[in-house]
Amino acid sequence: MMEDLSNILNAWPYEQGKLNVRTIEGVDGREILQLRLELGIIQMELHGRPDGIKQNGYPSLLAFLQSNEISGGLDSNICRQLREEGVQRSHRAAALFALSRWAEVIRDCDDNLELFNLCRSSAIELQDKNALEQFRAAVIALKARSAAELALANTSSIEAMAALDRGLSALEEALGQDFMSSNEAQLLQGMKEALFPQLPTSEKVDLQERLKVAISNENYELAAILRDEIRLLPD
To answer: From its phi and psi, is residue 100 left (phi > 0), alpha (psi between -120 and 50) or beta?
Structure first.
């Protein structure tokens, strides 16, 4: 009877159409993240690997590999384990985003991007080098959205705009010339357009000053972006 989870599940009913997330206090006082699914509950640690399993004494396999050189590159088994760890971290990032825990979302996105880079640079097999690249744009966009929300929480519209610009630049690097047709770029651009009317006068002046500096430094790509932002500002 003690193994029956019915009481736990009934105490937290699943709600269709939303991400059901909460944090609870563990028996030792630590904060734990839980995600309610239709058929159960996923429980995740807030630090290290979401499943809490140490990797050769390190908080994650990524941390272990970053601290210990693996001669000959990463074989397919290690790459598979890295992908599994990355999936865990992506689930946690999505749950943390639903809780508005922006800094922790950024942390998990940064770790996953490092994981992607490690596989791309060090995997022995070509398929392992490329396996995670399909997810890069989504992680970049999630990081940019979280950084913008964190800036807005600190009442800095201009830093929110800068975070979205950094995200768009990273997407362009990852996706090439067609990046603006991607769903991720359109999402970030939509957030930028929604922010323009909220910029106070001082921040509009700051955009104009940044434009002058970009032109004087012959940074014409940045200047073009700033001109587009200024044109969207209300008179």
So the answer is: left
Residues 6+ apart with CB under 8 A from 39: none
Q: Tokens in use for 23?
A: 């944090």
Q: What is the pLDDT of residues 171-215, one digit of tens each?
A: 999 999 888 899 999 999 999 888 866 666 556 677 777 777 778
CB-CB contact of 26 with 33 (8 Å): no
What number of H helices and E strands is found in the chain? 10, 3
- Cβ(129)–Cβ(71) under 8 Å? no
Alpha carbons within 13 A on the beta-carbon side of 106: 14
Comparing C-alpha atoms, which of 139, 141, 137, 235 is closest to residue 192? Answer: 141
In this structure, which amino acid lies at residue 205? V
State both tokens at 57. 């004494």
Residue type, 6: S
Dihedral sign from CA coordinates of 141, 143, 144, 149: positive
| Residue keyed to tokens 């073009």 | 224
Q: Measuring CA to CA, how many Å separate 148 from each of 28, 139, 151, 163, 213?
A: 34, 14, 5, 5, 23
